[in-house]
UniProtKB/TrEMBL annotation:
Swiss-Prot/TrEMBL keywords: Membrane, Transferase, Transmembrane, Transmembrane helix
InterPro entries, A to Z: CDP-OH_P_trans (IPR000462), CDP-OH_PTrfase_TM_dom (IPR043130), CDP_ALCOHOL_P_TRANSF_CS (IPR048254)
Protein name: CDP-alcohol phosphatidyltransferase family protein
Leader sequence segment: none
UniProt similarity note: Belongs to the CDP-alcohol phosphatidyltransferase class-I family.
Membrane-crossing segments per the record: 94-113, 125-143
């Protein structure tokens, strides 16, 4: 049976994809209030889509993919939009930001190399990492505090290691895996 595109969770993920260019444009316009408003809406929709998918029994492989695409779009757009709006701050933190982008992309590269497509594991550490990264980004951009962002990047690195380990362990792609430990225990 074909998965319907227009479920509530999928619509929230598509909303994030549609907002990504607006986030970059608000950075280009150097307009902080729209930037943080759009970013906040994107992060709230990210938090809600998985919760609502489970609550409404609308989980699907398509939904997991859309959520992952929305995550990539959000993090790439916030990086570019923030650089356009706060170039000095972003340039000062460039090594850590570039590390974060690389670490964020590595599990996707591993999945594409092995499975010829993106993985959408949605592990527990991925959820924790998303929360910490959101807080870290706001701390960096609103309060010019770097350490919460550094903590988030450290957890992101652990997330990447776990996601790559999951990719290496699986024979075929799966979604909604709690952790590598759960995967190993199941096997």
């Amino acid at each position: 049976m074909k998965t319907p595109l227009w479920t509530i969770p999928n619509t929230l993920s598509l909303f994030r994809l549609a907002c990504a260019p607006l986030l970059v444009l608000s950075g280009l316009a150097e307009s902080a209030v729209p930037f943080f408003t759009i970013l906040s809406l994107m992060l709230v929709s990210d938090a809600l889509d998985g919760f609502l998918a489970r609550l409404l029994h609308q989980t699907s492989v398509l939904g997991a993919k859309l959520d992952s695409y929305g995550d990539y779009a959000t993090y790439m757009a916030v990086t570019l939009g923030a650089w356009l709006q706060w170039p000095e701050r972003i340039e000062r933190e460039a090594p850590v930001i570039l590390l974060a982008v690389a670490v964020f992309i590595l599990p996707a590269v591993a999945s594409i190399l092995k499975f010829k497509r993106f993985a959408s594991y949605h592990t527990w550490i991925t959820k924790l990492s998303a929360i910490l990264m959101s807080l870290g980004i706001f701390a960096l951009l609103v309060f010019d505090l770097s350490w919460p962002f550094y903590v988030a990047v450290a957890v992101l690195m652990l997330e990447a290691i776990e996601n790559i380990a999951i990719t290496l362990t699986l024979d075929a792609p799966e979604t909604d895996i709690h952790s590598w430990w759960h995967l190993r225990k199941r096997r």
